[in-house]
Amino acid sequence: MGIMKKYLSLLKNSKLFQGISEDELTSMLDCLSAVTRSYHKGENIFSRGERIDSVALLLEGCIHIQKEDYWGNLSILSEISEGEIFGEVYACLGSDELLNNAVAVKPSKVLFLDVKRILTMCPSACQFHGRLIRNLLTVLAQKNKMLTQKLEHMSKRTTREKLLSYLSEQSQRAGSPVFDIPFNRQQLADFLSVDRSAMSAELCRMRDEGILSFDRNHFVLK
Amino acid sequence: MGIMKKYLSLLKNSKLFQGISEDELTSMLDCLSAVTRSYHKGENIFSRGERIDSVALLLEGCIHIQKEDYWGNLSILSEISEGEIFGEVYACLGSDELLNNAVAVKPSKVLFLDVKRILTMCPSACQFHGRLIRNLLTVLAQKNKMLTQKLEHMSKRTTREKLLSYLSEQSQRAGSPVFDIPFNRQQLADFLSVDRSAMSAELCRMRDEGILSFDRNHFVLK
DNA sequence: CCCATTCTGTTGTATTTACAACTGTTATGT
DNA sequence: ACATAACAGTTGTAAATACAACAGAATGGG
Could you give the CA distance from residue A49 to residue A65 in angstroms, rounded to a whole number? Predict the structure, then answer.
């Protein structure tokens, strides 16, 4: 478990392990039968239809939760950055099949944690076990809220409204009218489920109208 | 707490209290400072912007989680039926403002449970406390999955695809090509974020093409 | 430095949608 | 049973979108 030393501070600051001491953390990782694996860009960590019993925690890299339909239309559900977990919904539900793929968009390193051991292990022995479960609950609630916000964007009728809804949220999240988004144009279009070229045109129209300005993935709302 | 007797079997079979004995349940309700309140049709149980610290459990009636924008466009996020809980996301997150209203679409009766007591009460004394937390976790995971499925429908580009995506899921959920949906036309349109009349026309086109048949909210997929 | 690739913006057309207005049918309540 | 409201379907038009094809700028590798 020497490999984990490198990521101890990442884990300590992750939402899943928040409030758990460093000592407790290392002993927990054994207890949760933690294993790591590396993926290269484009590789699937999880695939649609699969059943899983582990929560994945991203140590390094970047993951997209996404799906492709019959005609090759890509739909991006969310982006996972370092320290965040994914797959927890299906790991908790156990018998349900995954609805989306988890794909590495950069070379990535992932830590897997057996969810059964999170939910049922030594309820009295581990002082921080209760904390771990409550952390998991909080993460699920936050993701739930994030999905609701995404639905808010997607429920807008026009591309312009979708963009404004999304960009406003990003601005609010950044606490500033100046912010970067984690997507390029094609990815943003796949995230908002609109046509890339139409979206690009709409962005330029809004820029010309003075509503916003941008350079690549750097935006300023006015 | 005599009023609760009437709903004991509903509570026992709810996802939140699944696996908890009847005796334990009645003592729990005191412990969770449970209170009930009645609402008439159209009344808000929760309102956008509000902060809450209680989970709501629907004893009787029907609730829609929905939002109205500046121009009066209604957007329905989900329907809550008897025995289901709502508000749990914001109750768990505590400091976050609600993004949606919870409105009674029928005369309804709601049970409120203090979430802090669910998460922190007597960790050793109550035998079933751990079960309650895990149940809450499962409900959150299921809702998360439901939101993902809804995003799957909404990410479709055309009204026809949205309808087929939604109706296929309903059919699958019912385990039969014959099923009822819980919405009328306007509600379904508000749920899928499309124009009602266009949707109505699309449904009729699909019927004429032999893809499906329907009568009111009763559908048959072919 | 050059080549190939990726990314972004632009334009035109066919398709699809939103919106409004209206008709007929089905519930609801008195 | 009646009047009223709620609901479902239809049509035409203006607006918005998807799609395809292309051009220039930026990026990355050899």
Answer: 14
